[in-house]
Design a protein that fits this description.
Elements: H1 2-14, H2 32-41, H3 44-51, H4 59-66, H5 74-87, H6 90-98, H7 106-109, H8 115-123, H9 131-148, H10 161-171, H11 176-199
């Protein structure tokens, strides 16, 4: 019971509220040290509840990263997630890759994706493509999946739609092994962006 109330107090101080998104109170970089100190004090269960969606539909990564606490800072926290993912077997890595939605795919356009994915795709303007552009994304998504058997992964934050299309065309020429490695690198970037958002650095 004591641990339950300690977690509740930490959740309040971290700004974790309700069921509508676990909103964080700290929004400025200067608060990160104190924030990470409090993250380090969360129970295992509370940590996974808070950060389980940092990796798309793969809360097991946060579950494993929780064991690597205490974190010195946000960079160390990101490294812990990255190391867990890189240490996973190929099947687990492919599961994580396949959990990501297609860029400008049907699910994304319908809003049937995780909130973070939806926001990231919107930030790159993928929800406002012209018909010709949407057809090209659809064709490239299909060609990429047919060639590699998993979705094209690109950390779209700060990217332009033309950057993404160029990367699509270029990476279609890669080997399957090279693309799996690149997908993991892109997922690591996505993790970093989501942790920055969560910890108030965006």
């Amino acid at each position: 019971m004591l641990f339950f109330w300690q977690d509740k107090l930490l959740e309040l101080s971290l700004g974790i509220v309700g069921d509508s998104g676990l909103v964080l109170a700290f929004k400025h970089p200067e608060n990160n040290r104190g924030f990470v100190e409090q993250v380090n004090q969360l129970s295992h269960q509370a940590f996974v509840a808070r950060f389980g969606d940092v990796v798309e539909q793969s809360s097991w990564v946060a579950d494993a990263a929780a064991h690597r606490r205490p974190f010195a800072d946000v960079t160390a926290m990101h490294l812990a997630f990255e190391e867990v993912l890189n240490a996973a077997d190929v099947a687990q890595q492919l599961d994580v890759i396949c959990a990501h939605p297609d860029l400008a795919g049907r699910a994304a356009l319908a809003g049937d994706v995780a909130a973070a994915s939806e926001q990231e795709q919107q930030s790159a303007g993928l929800d406002k493509l012209r018909p010709k552009e949407l057809r090209e994304f659809t064709e490239l998504n299909e060609a990429y999946r047919q060639r590699f058997g998993f979705p094209f992964i690109y950390a779209v934050r700060g990217a332009h739609k033309y950057d993404i299309l160029d990367a699509f065309r270029r990476r279609l020429q890669n080997s399957s092994e090279a693309e799996q490695a690149e997908a993991l690198r892109q997922i690591s970037r996505i993790i970093a962006f989501r942790l920055e958002d969560a910890l108030g650095n965006a």
